[in-house]
Amino acid sequence: MKFLRYVLAHLWRSKRRTFLTVSSIALALFLFCTLRTVMTSFDASIRASDDTRLVVRHAASLVFPLPLAYRERLTQMPGVTHVGYGNWFGGYYQDPKNQFAQFAVDAPTFFDVYPEVILPAEQRQAFLGERTACIAGRAACKKFGWKLGDVIPITGTIYPGEWRLTLRGVYAGRTEDVDENTVFFHWDYLNESLPDVRKNQVGIYWLRLASSKDAPAVSERVDALFENSPQPTKTETEKAFQAGFISMIGNVQLLLTILGSAIVFAIVLVTINTMMMAARERTGEIAVLKTLGFGDGLILRLVGAEAMILSLAGGILGCGIAWLLFRRVDFTAGGFFPNFRVLPETVALGLLLAVLMGLLSGLVPAVSASRLRIASALRKVA
Amino acid sequence: MARIPIVYNLRHLGARRVSTALTALGIALVAWVFIFTLALAGGFEAALKTSGSPDNAIAVRSGSTGELTSIVSREAATVVESQPEVARSPDGMPLATAELLVVWNLPRKSGTTTNVVVRGVGPKSPALRPKIRLVAGRMFRPGLDEIVVGRMVSERFRNAAVGDHLKLSGRDWAVVGVFDAGGTSYDSEIWGDVELFMPVFDRPVFQSVTVRLDDRSHFEALKRRLEADPRLTVQVRREDEFYAAQSGMLARLLRSLGLFVTLVMALGAVFGALNTMYAAVGARTKEIGTLRAIGFGRGAVLLSVLVESTLLALLGGAIGCLLALPVRTFTTGTMSFATFSELAFRFQVTPGMLGAGLAFAAAMGLIGGFFPARKAASLPIVEALREA
Predict the structure, then answer these.
(1) B323 touches chain A (CB under 8 A)
(2) Do A266 and B268 touch (CB under 8 A)?
(3) Which of A61, A169, A242, B261 is deepest in the core (most CB within 10 A)?
(4) pTM, full prediction
């Protein structure tokens, strides 16, 4: 540790190089954190899912509805405490580019199956008591400037026409992973407005269970019950359902991993180069240190420490900026990532990466410095 | 004014081989990432853009953003098909097809499942999409439990080769053929007889009607008449525009993500190039002093350093382009929001993208070389020569 000042003095001496190197490492780790956050944001819905909640949908795909009549039979299923249901509405507000989710839900049971949607009691009452009422997440209200009592016109693409909903509640999520960009309104309102052939059709049933241990057995029983009906079902935990949904988006994980590796690798190359140049410029100085009696091991550590300090400084800077930036700025990529925020483990991984970069980039110059032969090095200087 | 020969720069780059290689590789990776993201967004866009033809018009229910949310009744389909602007085939029938589209969850070869478009087509469907040709097996026979699948479906999903059976809506369907749709979105679809699909999938209505125009310029007249017809609630669009509109959001997202990643990464690489060139200039202070002393001007030194860093960056850019060539063979699938199902596409590397990658690399070299070049040019001759 007593040589720390020597190392810092060195970094200070070539301020420009130190600044440039730290900046390029910081940029690389900022990108790393951003890309990994893209990945973890995809998974936010998985983290937000509840183990005691099952999703029942048509076996073919979500596009096919289930009959409302299934509700009674699901309610009687042992192990099931609450049954809720809803339809994906698929509309937009003002401009088709305004992407956010709208669900028509059975209002009386909704808060039983979705306890993580938190709403003041009086707002909940106001919502439940009015057929054309809706509730919206905090983020959606902020984004579109909605206030309680506003009439929000939503244009349907699956259910044509303009649907005028009155905002009676603004909900918050129980955890940060709960999507606060969704609008929920009364399924009854949707249903009564539809032509007869489209009435009484349900997109998804949600089942709440007494215990998550029952999930496999209940899923199996539900699917067996409807297996031979014209509308067979597929029942799975909410986690599995969300994971399936994400896997449909494609192999984003692989693409981002490829990009991330290329970025990190490029910056490692740049950093190794910088460290090698820095060491080369000091050949004479290292020879002098050795003449004074500094051992090979100590020289190795001194040169290595310099690389490590640069990398760590860059790492802290890059990860820190990503952490702060995405918390302050409301970035959603056009509604694509409702909860874009850097997770603590992403920062930890980023810092670990910085340490590895430091080791790797310090290794070559440190070893060659420690192996430097005094006589030839001093001769070069003179 | 005398110029410093380029050979001088080349020799220098050769003399510090390791440093040259590391810097060039760093820049190569930035260029590669740049081309990679362009190829990804380009491939996705191309798959949708080329799916439609300007010679065709497609009618869906007004208000629908895609076929999936559309409903067109049999009566409405007949009205659309009988319009005078619709071209006729040699047998005298209108070149038109009313199609059914459902989305079915199927297992990929990797074991995960995703939605696939299942399209019920009529006898005129292939004629309306001239890019489609069979590459294996034969066409399905109307009225039988037979289907043909797109090349991407056959490659990416289980039980989707000729001779296999796929289970859809409680029935086993024999896969009798595989078609190639030239990289369009039809490559990700399953086709069968629409008249058989309607009862089997319990869908009494079509999703869309596509017609061939007898003349491209007649589109507006057709659109105006159909959209004003009180019997119908349809919107009519040119088929190419209809498909291109579907690529909008995701392609934009991919492009902006790619641009963001590349710009931040490029900044990092420019910092690296600055370091390299500063060190390169620093190590030959005396040499630069000598060059100045024998009569080369400040401009010549500035230009020489700039040339050297640009050469270095171009070397990196060229390596990046070479590494990017195999990207052409990558295939990936993503969910198309318009059909809520998988759209598989091939990455597209165009000469324009490679050119952009090279230009991008050259720009990095110019910026990374400029400040060190200015420093080199402004060195006072006497002091530079005195330097160790």
Answers:
(1) no
(2) yes
(3) B261
(4) 0.84
